Amino acid sequence: MTRQRPLLLLLVVFLGAGAMALGRGPSAVADQAATAGRPPGTSYKSPAFTFNKITEGVYHAVGTGSLVVMSNATIIEGDRDVLVVDSHVSPGGAWALREELKAITPKPIRWVVNSHYHFDHSHGNQIYGPEVEIIGHEFARQQILAGKSINSPALQFYVGGVPAAIKGLEGRLAAATDDKERATIQAQLDIQRNHLEGTNAVKPTPPTMTLDHTMTLHRGSREIRLLFLGRGHTAGDVVVYLPKERIVATGDLLVEATSYMGDAYFPEWDQTIETLKQLDFDTVLPGHGRAFTGKAKLDHWQAYLRDFWAQAQKFHKAGVAWEEAAKQVDLRGNAVNYPGIRSAGITPNHGMRRAYEILDGKIK
């Protein structure tokens, strides 16, 4: 991962109130009153999501920043029900999506797909009752049951700093004298307090239905294919493919910018992207970032992966410690495709540690 995605996530996490400050509207979807079935972490100002229509009955749900959700979701309507890809970082995020989706379609959610096991894509699973099947790769179920979604360096990096952020905002609020500045800080503080409440309420909940390679759902005229194309971002990435609509939802196997590499498989990820290219699609709905068309970004990500892996092998062979290699690795040759790369080094450094674990034979 370069510095690009952490900066993007920090923008969402710490400046999420910006949309409201720019006039998104003060109507409160969530107030402090307890509501039956409502999980902690649902005090936010609407909307939490923008539902970008891709084609009839297919939407890409992207967080607005008023509620920290971290990942996108893909919404796919069938004839009688709805399938949602990914459940966000907390039960509050999943609840907000379910509630706001009612303005898009009256059909109930009956299927949830976890593209992989990471916390920001699966920690909303718990809000769904027995009427909803949660589908994921068998590896994802194993990892969640083993506590790997909640006990991970990635979660610590992206969420572990929230208490300190809250303390910092409280200090800034106490020192601020300008009313406009105080209102902005208070909005940011409310978002972070709600975020902490939501993530503290997580009870990791695994998929109830699993696949090893493929599964196909037929929901009326809608054919929905769930595919495991090979190891990459994790050992159990599932893409959701709509062959008729020529759309693929990729989770973090392929995102708009650069993807987290702390649980990656090098160089298998490169080959998995090559396999993904063979699908007949026009539109990609990534787990982070904006939807995009065409296959050029697949080439860009392969080039980045190859560059990173080649450098990691050289550092390892030279006996450079992985921590130092993470500071020295220079991926600026990929900046034309990933403008967020402005200097040497990767943040977080988990990707380099993972590369060394593979090279040392610790990861098979």
Distance between the termini: 21 Å
The percent range for strand residues is 15-25%
Average per-residue pLDDT, rounded, comes to: 92
Could you tell me the radius of gyration in angstroms?
20 Å
Number of strands: 13
* Individual helix count: 12
Record the strand order, biggest sheet: 1-2-3-4-5-6-7
Task: Label the overall shape.
Answer: globular
* Helicity level: 25-40%
Largest sheet: 7 strands, mixed
By secondary-structure content and strand pairing, the structural class works out as alpha/beta
Order of helices and strands: HHEEEEHEHEHHHHEEEEEHEEHHH
- Low-confidence stretches are 1-35
Q: What can you see in these coordinates?
A:
By secondary structure, this protein is an alpha/beta fold. 36% of the residues lie in helices and 17% in strands. The chain is built from twelve helices and 13 strands. It has a seven-stranded mixed sheet. The chain has a six-stranded mixed sheet with strand order 8-9-10-11-12-13, with no helix packed on it. Strand 3 (73-77) and strand 4 (82-85) form a beta hairpin. Helix 9 runs antiparallel to helix 10. The longest helix is centred in the middle third of the chain and has 22 residues, at 179-200. Residues 1-35 have low confidence and may be disordered.
